[in-house]
Amino acid sequence: MNDYTEAEVQRALAEDLGVAEQGITVVRSETGLVLCGEVESPHRKDEIVRLVGERFPGVTFAVDIGVTRAGAPTEAEELA
User: Fold this and answer.
1) How far apart are CA 75 and CA 37, in angstroms?
2) How far is 38 from 31, CA to CA, in rounded Å?
C-alpha cells in the first residue's frame, strides 16, 4: 500500500457508477485501511466491500459501515 492508496479508494467509491458513494470515509490504520460510515441497506454495504476488494486486491481493509434503515414511518406522529 502506497501513500496514495487511501485517496485512490475514496475516489473509486465516489466515481464508480455502480456505487457512487460519497458518505464512506477511508482511514489508514496500522494494518491497512478502514471503511467507515453509514449506508441505507446491507446490499449497498456489500457492493462497497466488493468494489474495494476487486479494485484493490493487495490492500487489507476492515469494514466499519453501519446500516441505517430509512423506511417510511409505521405510526402517525402526534403533535402537541
Assistant:
1) 28
2) 22
Across the beta sheet with 24-28, what order do the strands follow? Answer: 24-28, 33-39, 61-67
**Amino acid at position 52, single letter:** V
From first to last of its 80 residues, the chain has per-residue pLDDT tens of 777 899 999 999 999 888 888 889 999 998 899 999 999 889 999 999 999 999 999 999 999 999 987 666 677 777 86
With cell 475514496, the residue in question is 10
Q: Are 7 and 35 in contact (CB under 8 A)?
A: no
Please name the residue that has the C-alpha cell 441505507.
40
Q: Do residues 20 and 48 make contact, with C-beta atoms less than 8 angstroms apart?
A: no
Per DSSP bridges, beta strands 61-67 and 33-39 are parallel
- Dist CA 78 CA 53 (whole Å): 46
Question: Residue 15 corresponds to which cell in the numbers above?
Answer: 466515481
